[in-house]
Amino acid sequence: MPWREPGFSATERVTLKLRGLYEQFGYRKYHVGQFEEYALYLRFKSFLTGGRILSFTDLDGRLLALKPDVTLSIAKNTQLSGGAEKSYYIENVYRESASTGAMKEIRQMGLEYLGGDGAYAQAEALYLARETLKAVGPAHVLELSHMGFLLGLFDALGLEGEAREKVLSCLSSKSAHGVAEEARRAGIGAAGVEALAKLCSLSGEFSQTLAQARELCLNPRMTAALNELNQAAEAAGVDESLRLDFTLQGDMEYYDGLMMAGYLSGAPRAVLYGGRYDGLMKKLGRDACAVGFALYLDDLKGLPRPQSDCDVDVLLLAGDGCDPAKLLAEVRALTGQGLRVRVDTQPPEGLRCGEVRRFEGRDSQC
User: Fold this and answer.
1) Torsion of CA 298, 300, 303, 309, to 10 degrees
2) 184-205 burial, b if ≥16 CB within 10 A, otherwise e?
3) Which residues neighbour 25 within 8 Å (Cβ) at sequence distance 6 or greater?
4) If you average pLDDT over every residue of the chain, what do you get?
5) Contact 291, 258 (CB under 8 A)
6) H-helix segments, 199-323
7) What number of other Cβ atoms are within 10 A of residue 172's Cβ?
8) DSSP conformation letters of 86-129
């Protein structure tokens, strides 16, 4: 007997659900070509995560690359004509594995909001990032940060160049000792060293951590960054899933606003990353807001399947002599409520269903 997959996989169900969600908010599906000119990725290499880029020479002599990133391609190729351009995608990217050094094919689903009002774009992206995590699993955490807060602190302390990069690296690994050592080597005073070291532990519940961060503000840029974060979070709805973590960061050349990382119970690392990247748009010659995020679909495969994840919602048992017109009408009524329905004479072996009902409508001709 041939093997058949029992309906959609968990990942397929997630992508279907998210497509509906994103399209409700006006996003349109965007297909990115598998190849892009290598020069584009070489120019923006620091924007990309990962190491080597897999490249080859095309028949016409051009040097092409298997795309290691979707955001860069969308930002480059989307035409902005006054209003915002809102796109979502389901694509494969090709990157070097940090652990093995081998090239990996990675499945992503994400969205990009280009142009329009920056404050609203951040709020909507934050809301949809949280709804994305909810669609995968109820137990989730969305960590937030703001590059403007970090850059404002660096500006206030006069931390620049290579010293700034070293401090950021230590912040990323949450090494307060490393941050303090690098800051001292850069000639930062004791008060500045202490403020930088505090960033490593500036993490926790949103409202409480925001209040702690306000105590570190040394200039208007830092205050404005926290106000932006608070505005976006309040618009999206502050709940227990939102946390602040100021060690979360992106490349300073491209990211200058909201940063996000999403975690799910059962996943060993973040499954969602995103942020505001107006700096990339400027590098592409466009003065426009840009914010988005990507969900790493491959990381969802190992998650435990919830008990409520049934094959059908209703198993409708219909015996001999049932009126087919009445039976089909009952099925249509149930599916019209959004339920998944299966009709059978007895429960199939291995079928997981939310509810079993018996249909008693008889054929009047029998």
Assistant:
1) -130
2) eebebeeebbebbbbbbebbee
3) 86, 124, 128
4) 85
5) yes
6) 206-214, 220-236, 278-283
7) 13
8) EEEEEEEEEEE-TTT--EEEEEEEEEEEESS-HHHHHHHHHHHH
Buried b (16+ CB within 10 A) or exposed e, 279-294: bbbeebebebbbbbbb
Q: Which two tokens stand for residue 152?
A: 């404002």
Q: Which CATH number fits domain 10-300: 3.40.50.1820, 3.40.50.2300, 3.30.930.10, 3.40.50.720?
A: 3.30.930.10
Computed from CA positions of residues 293, 25, 122, 228, in that sequence, does the dihedral angle turn out positive or negative?
negative
Give the up-direction half-sphere exposure of residue 18: CA atoms within 13 A in the CB hemisphere: 29
Residue 331 — pLDDT band, cuts 50, 70, 90? very high
Q: Is the dihedral of CA 64, 66, 72, 75 positive or negative?
A: positive
Structure pTM? Answer: 0.79
pLDDT score of 88: 95
DSSP string across 303-332 = SPPPTT--SEEEEEEE-TTB-HHHHHHHHH
User: What does residue 99 show for φ and ψ, rounded to 5 degrees?
Assistant: -85, -35
* Residue of 236, 270, 257, 20 whose CA lies nearest to 125: 236
CB 346 within 8 A of CB 317: yes
**Tokens standing for 303?**
């998650």
- Could you tell me which of 305, 298, 325, 314 has the C-alpha nearest to residue 351? 314
Q: Is the dihedral of CA 170, 173, 174, 178 positive or negative?
A: negative
Mean pLDDT, to the nearest integer, of 91-117? 82
